[in-house]
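seq as requested:
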Amino acid sequence: GLKSMYFPTSSDSAAWWEGVNMHAASTVMMWIKPPATFPDGTYYRFGAAFGSGAYYQFLVSYPTATAFCLYYSNGNIYTDNTSSLTAGVWTHVTFRRSSATVMNVMYNGATEATFTHDVTGDPPTTSGLTISGVSYGWAGGSVAQVREWASALTDAEIVIEKNSHTVVKAGSYGAWPLATGTDTSDTSGNSRTLSISGTPTTGTDGPPN
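struct tokens:
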């Protein structure tokens, strides 16, 4: 059956550095299975970018799960507590920007946290995706079915995507199954092949969909 990409060491990561603009309407989602043991404060990064007036990141940390909005241009660090991700259990996590000032963080299709903040100054227009990896604070474990849209999917559409191992909503910006340790393919048709660092391996299983 379908499996996942596993990130075991500090040299393992996967990334696409020209992702959707998470300052505008957007949706970024992935299945995550955190490792059993990992230092607190490490994180999965859904988007980060430099702009002429801002540097920002959207993160979910592990094992004490907190959703972060970091705006380095003005020194603000916005956090919203979420329920903890469970070690060894697959969780579907979505960041959805529904308006200029509202960002939802969703676990398994249900809202866990909502940001009501926005970048000041001149924000970036693309958002680099670091799917996982341990280096630089990235959390390890297994990741699969990473998908991005330059639009805000509805709650119902997010649940449909969660329940499908293939993309359902048309017009995805990028879609990466990560079905093996070497699967960097983009099934959106946009040829956004991931960059791999280190030697991720194939996970022992895949998401429950």
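The chain has a mean pLDDT of 79.
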